[in-house]
């Protein structure tokens, strides 16, 4: 029979793990409620609440002490920080998103939302219709839109930091989304809106983290296709133009992420070879203007 010390240790261990279990159960419920809904519909408004709760759970997990026990997991690479499933940091909300195959869905949702957002005429008409059908005023509906964009944006940012997430998602859609958001032609009105709201949590800034994650993990993904699509969508040009136009507003974390992404692209062997070939042929490496 277990002695008193063993019982005490087991009880203490269970007590320490209880907050993690509670967050995990709540997170799974929220993730399973994620589905694509028409923007400003009653179902969409309920979805925003689930995304808010999931984001808060993710932020709560970030404040939890690291799980040092995973260092003893058999087969774990001790020279890395681990994967979503064996790292010391608690990221159950993100892990559940991956396990429930919701990451690409979330990406599709934010992509469709931003296309709707950039269509100013239809957006305003939908807001007016939402005021009538939901019984909310326009300010409340705009706030829900901001919360939807912020929550999805942050959840995806954290998810894309992991190579195993990028290996499972629709990469062409991610590249297309980054290009859509950074395209200055579509951001004429958005630029005005950014000045009146929390800039760094909007997609117009958050997608720079997506770009950085893509470049950081490119060689572990389908590198050739990724670089080809990066070139086709002129991502490098768009990122550099964003840095020139908005760099003064970056915080240190975003500036470091962009710098790391550009450095990883420069270090990418396939990209480096392409630039050398261009140089030998007497052509400048292509950064479209």
Amino-to-carboxy terminus distance: 75 Å
SS elements, strand count? 0
User: How much helicity do the residues have?
Assistant: 55-70%
**Secondary-structure content class:** mainly alpha
**Average residue-wise pLDDT:** 83
Low-confidence stretches: 7-16
Q: How many individual helices?
A: 14
The main β sheet shows up as: none
> How much strand?
under 5%
How is this structure best described in words?
- There is one protein chain.
- With about 290 residues, the chain is an all-alpha fold.
- The chain is about 70% helix and about 0% strand.
- The chain contains 14 helices and no strands.
- The chain has helices spanning about 5-30, 40-60, 90-100, 105-120, 120-135, 140-160, 165, 170-180, 190-195, 205-215, 225-230, 235-245, 250-265, 270-280.
- α1 crosses α3 (about 90-100), α3 crosses α6 and α4 (about 105-120) packs parallel to α8 (about 170-180).
- The longest helix has 29 residues, at about 5-30.
- About 30% of the residues are buried.
């Amino acid at each position: 029979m277990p002695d008193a010390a063993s019982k005490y240790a087991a009880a203490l261990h269970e007590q320490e793990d209880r907050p993690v279990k509670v967050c995990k159960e709540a997170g799974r419920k929220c993730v399973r409620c994620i589905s694509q809904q028409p923007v400003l519909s009653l179902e969409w408004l309920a979805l925003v609440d689930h995304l808010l709760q999931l984001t808060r759970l993710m932020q709560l997990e970030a404040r939890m002490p690291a799980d040092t026990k995973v260092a003893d997991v058999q087969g774990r690479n001790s020279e890395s920080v681990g994967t979503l499933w064996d790292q010391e940091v608690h990221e159950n909300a993100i892990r559940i998103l991956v396990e429930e195959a919701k990451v690409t869905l979330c990406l599709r949702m934010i992509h469709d939302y931003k296309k709707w957002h950039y269509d100013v005429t239809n957006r305003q008409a939908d807001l007016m219709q939402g005021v009538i059908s939901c019984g909310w005023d326009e300010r409340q509906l705009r706030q829900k839109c901001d919360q939807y964009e912020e929550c999805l944006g942050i959840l995806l940012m954290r998810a894309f930091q992991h190579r195993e997430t990028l290996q499972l998602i629709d990469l062409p859609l991610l590249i297309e989304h980054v290009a859509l958001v950074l395209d200055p032609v579509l951001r004429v009105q958005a630029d005005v809106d950014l000045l009146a709201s929390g800039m760094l949590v909007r997609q117009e800034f958050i997608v720079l983290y997506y770009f950085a994650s893509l470049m950081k993990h490119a060689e572990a993904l389908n590198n050739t296709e990724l670089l080809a699509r990066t070139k086709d969508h002129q991502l490098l040009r768009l990122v550099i133009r964003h840095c020139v136009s908005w760099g003064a507003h970056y915080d240190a974390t975003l500036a470091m992420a962009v710098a790391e992404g550009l450095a990883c692209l420069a270090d990418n062997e396939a990209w480096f070879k392409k630039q050398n070939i261009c140089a030998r042929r007497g052509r400048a490496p292509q950064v479209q203007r």
